[in-house]
Predict the 3D structure of the following.
Amino acid sequence: MLNQVQTRLAVFCAIAAAIGFGVSFFATRPGSTQDVNLITDGRHEQAMEQARELYDALLLANWNRNQVDSRLFRLPDQDFDEDIKKRGPFYLSFMTGVPGFPGRQELAFCTDLYTRTNRARGVGAEGVTWRTEGFYIVALKNGQINQVPVEDVRLYAHEFQGKTLYSPVFPGMAVYRDDLRRIRLHPD
């Protein structure tokens, strides 16, 4: 009789723990209603520290991302990305650039996780306004790891698989020029 009570109690505790874990585990998964402004409330220092760890790991692996622990490519703040589709556990925070991008020789990785586009809708096309704000975390292969404000980011046009892509470029890169297209901070 005592074994049955202990077994039921153990099962009950296991189920209760799983339910409690499930609530906290799934609270930040895709579809979460949590909206965190990562520009003001993100864990920036932790992200910069992880960027340094990732840089060191990539340097040791001779820039071969397949030889680096994939967990270093995903920041904990990714659970609160502005785009709900990017909150899942398999979405990586840090990007290394697409093949064929001329700046890839200089760019170790970057993330736009700490940028945000605030939109407001009014009446008609004239009533749509937005403001992109925040910063990228950028690591160049020369060892510079910085927070780059969106105002300083430029978009470099290049061809990839027959399509024109616009990749972000940052101060300190050879392909960076002030006259390149900017991220739209305000509607034209």
About this structure: Helices lie at 2-26, 38-41, 44-60. The longest helix spans residues 2-26.
